[in-house]
Amino acid sequence: MSSDAFHLPAFLTSQTASVFPWDVVVLAIIAAALGFRLYRILGRRVGVQGVKQTVPRSAAPVGNTGRTMPPPLPEGAGAASGAEPPPARHEIPAPATRVGGVLIDIVKVRSGFNPQDFLKGVETAFRQIVTAFANGDRAVLTGAMTENAAQAYLSAIDAREAAGEKQRSDIRGVEKVALLNAEVVNENERSVARIEVEIVSRQVSLLTNSEGHPVIGTEAVTEFNDLWVFETVLGTDDTRWRLASSRPA
């Protein structure tokens, strides 16, 4: 490397170029500058590596078990959470709709009928019937259903018990009870009113065999969407609404 490449002053090159090693001095300065720069870079990286990293809360170990903490359940998702589940949302068609008109006709025939109170009764009946079916409570089912519906439920219980199976149904919450359809029909010289509702619930539903192994369902909380039809005979003293049929939505 020549001193001309660095444009040294002319009086220095003319007087001392032959006796003083300017190339060596310039290279030494460059090497020192690079070394200082390298030291600063390495020093900063060591500083970053020494910073303590924060462990996310969701991955923090629980006690000394080594297991990780699961994310929190939604509010009211479990009975053991200590929080009351939110009330069910009730949906009723507007009076101007066809279904709303049928509801008005039912009110005219049966004094005291109120769609809002009806849905509250449906929610109560839903909880009672699901629990009674799991427990094999035939008396509750017979009183809450029409004859045909009760026969279907009781036959299912008989088959379950004959196989040594057990049903677990734990309702963790009812999210929605919606009135979908209504009709009034004449059957056997009787005026029968039928109302179809959609019920959205969260349940732990599990069927186990005689050895306790799962057959259908899971231990996890699962959302269920059901369509239930209730009916009553108008013009009589018996104003109860009974479950006539049920199926998954």
UniProtKB/TrEMBL annotation:
NCBIfam families according to UniProt: Tim44_TimA_adap (NF033779)
Chain ranges passing through the membrane: 20-39
Annotated protein name in UniProt: Mitochondrial import inner membrane translocase subunit Tim44
Keyword Transmembrane attributed: yes
Keyword annotations of the record: Membrane, Transmembrane, Transmembrane helix
SUPFAM superfamilies found in the cross-reference section: NTF2-like
Keyword 4Fe-4S set for record: no
Database matches in Pfam families: Tim44
Domain of life: Bacteria
Annotated stretches, region: Disordered: 57-94
